[in-house]
Design a protein that fits this description.
Blueprint (H helix, E strand, L loop, with lengths): L7 E5 L4 H12 L3 E6 L4 H9 L3 E6 L5 H15 L4 E4 L14 H28 L4 E6 L12 H21 L4 E8 L8 H4 L2 H10 L8 H12 L10 E4 L7
Parallel strand pairs: 1-2, 1-4, 2-3, 4-5, 5-6, 6-7
């Protein structure tokens, strides 16, 4: 039997990149996947179907808390209780700290941290009504551990997400709800396009990665599926680096 057979997962930002890979991997492990985000999910749903899984699109603007909560609650009403929440949706705004605008700061914190908390809250309320048990997996970052440059809002949000992972793990562990995070290294996604398009930055980053390559979204997805599944039932409060050895260097 597949590890997540009979489970239902809600994945944010599932239209592309890490979120898409996570949705497909969870589906391949047997979960029914509710794919949430602003963009079309056609490609993701086709990949889920090709993997023999079942998925549904859930339109949602995760920068608006009322809409994020309504999307989760509507998805449960339409498809049934959610067993796994993956807070993957994230945006980045690059600027020197002295130039960052309040609007960019707020946009990043709203999507990356505030929405993650309120979706986790909605998820936990639902699981507690059902008697407990479930898994939250947050997608953090190497910048949950390091500072980076020119990404003040992003670093603040991802550092906050690691802290949020720990506090929610403490509160919800007695109810059988695990809360963990993965911290991807440098991944080939839209968010890193600017870095990969800069030859000097791209090569400097590559030289620091012991495994000698940038991550692919599927590399991150496997870790998420593990933390969402029965093999991690006694793992909680962890932020797991998936970085090709970056932090070990």
């Amino acid at each position: 039997m597949s590890a997540l057979a009979g489970r239902r997962a809600f994945v944010t930002g599932a239209n592309t990149g890490i979120g898409q890979a996570v949705a497909v991997d969870l589906a391949a492990a047997g979960a029914e996947v509710l794919c949430a985000g602003r963009s079309a999910m056609d490609e993701t749903l086709a990949a889920i179907a090709a993997a023999g899984g079942q998925g549904h699109a859930v339109p949602a603007d995760l920068g608006t808390m009322a809409e994020a909560r309504a999307a989760f609650e509507g998805a449960e009403a339409a498809h049934g209780p959610v067993d796994v929440l993956v807070n993957n949706a994230g945006i980045i705004r690059r600027a020197d700290a002295v130039d960052m605008t309040e609007a960019d700061w707020d946009a990043v914190l709203d999507v990356n941290l505030k929405a993650a908390f309120f979706l986790a809250q909605s998820f936990a309320r639902s699981r507690l009504r059902a008697g407990g048990e479930g898994a939250v997996v947050n997608v953090a970052s190497l910048l949950s551990f390091q500072g980076g440059i020119r990404v003040a809002g992003y670093t603040a949000s991802k550092s906050g997400l690691a802290g949020l992972t720990r506090v929610l793990a403490n509160e919800w562990a007695p109810h059988g709800i695990t809360v963990n995070a993965v911290a991807p290294g440098y991944v080939e996604t839209n968010n890193t396009a600017a870095l990969r398009d800069d030859p000097e930055r791209r090569e400097a980053i590559l030289a620091r990665i012991p495994m000698g390559r940038w991550a692919r979204p599927a590399d991150i997805a496997g870790a998420v599926t593990f933390l969402a599944g029965p093999g991690a039932r006694y793992v909680t409060g962890v932020t797991l680096p998936v970085d090709g050895g970056w932090l070990a260097r």
